[in-house]
Amino acid sequence: MLGNEPEIVEKVQNAFKTTKVINLQSTEVTDAGVLDFKINHRFGALNTGANNAFGLDQAFIRIGFEYGAIPNLMLGIGRTSVDKTLDGYFKYRIMHQTSDNKKPFSLLLFGDVNSRRIKFPFLVSQSQRLAYCAQLILGRKFSESFSLELAPSYVHYNLAPFGVSNDQYALGIGLRQKITNRLSVNLEYIPLLGANGVYKNSLSLGCDIETGGHVFQLHLTNSNGMVEPQFIGRNDNTWQSGSIRFGFNISRVFTLVDPSRFPNNSY
After folding, report:
1. Residue 141 belongs to some domain of the structure
2. What pTM does this model have?
3. 168: domain CATH number?
4. What is the pLDDT of residue 4?
5. Does residue 10 contact residue 243 with C-beta atoms inside 8 Å?
6. What is the 3-state secondary structure (H, E, C) of the chain?
7. 111-114 contacts at long range (C-beta below 8 A, 24 or more positions apart)
8. Is residue 164 in some structural domain?
């Protein structure tokens, strides 16, 4: 009888279009055996004026790769022109939201290490160049159109300006509103928890456009940096001052290993 048929329990997929909301990590993880090639591009601030083409004469870029090592585990590396920064990170999905609500949200752990390769005006050791970030990402897809995540964050800098703490706590907030099957609007806000010098909260607004194997993320943001220690705890720009930057992210995935070679993820 139809009333006795068991409920089909599925994992809730595609809460976000890519592994990033805009700057923040999303609840998505690159599938096992898949390589995701990332290009992040950001122009200068609008308040630099017409002589600087309102920021278009400046350019900052990050090139990186993310790889699904095994189901639920993603590894990434990248190089950013801001402070000539090298970064490496992992993201692990601890729990996946399910359609029966027995697991009402997705839970992920993210860890990142950065090394600034820029020349300092004073002697700096290799360890002093390092900064670290840890995040716990909690997200839920509330409907086919709307997703929300919270990302409590901790950042530690081995080297900090005089009078500024080496540690910074923050709460990342990201949301996605789907407009069509190929278009969505994203918003993220990262309030700092506790004062820490002149640094400001990061605020970004953008849209995702999917075109076949590519996802283009167009956005406006007050953050120049594109890795966690930069846009979370070392952002000194505000929207009120006109320090708004136009940028875009490009994601292109390549399947390197047949997904059938990996065991199915368990609930």
Report:
1. yes
2. 0.91
3. 2.40.160.40
4. 59
5. no
6. CHHHCCCCCCECCCCCCCCECCCCECCCCCCECEEEEEEEEEEEEHHHCHHHHHHCCCEEEEEEEEEEEECCEEEEEEEECHHHEEEEEEEEEEECCECCCCCCCEEEEEEEEEEECCCCCCCCCCHHHEEEEEEEEEEEECCCCEEEEEEEEEEEECCCCCCCCCEEEEEEEEEEEEEECCEEEEEEEECEECCCCCCCCEEEEEEEEEECCEEEEEEEECCCCCCHHHHCCCCCCCCCCCCCEEEEEEEEEEECCCHHHCCCCCC
7. 111/135, 112/87, 112/88, 112/227, 112/228, 112/229, 113/87, 113/88, 113/89, 114/85, 114/86, 114/87, 114/227, 114/228, 114/229, 114/230
8. yes
> Is 65 a member of any domain?
yes
The CA distances from residue 197 to 161, 163, 216, 236, 253, in Å, are: 9, 8, 34, 9, 39
pLDDT tens per residue across span 155-203: 999 999 888 999 999 999 999 999 999 999 999 999 999 877 789 999 9
Domains in the chain: how many in total? Answer: 1
- The parent domain of residue 45 ranges over 11-257
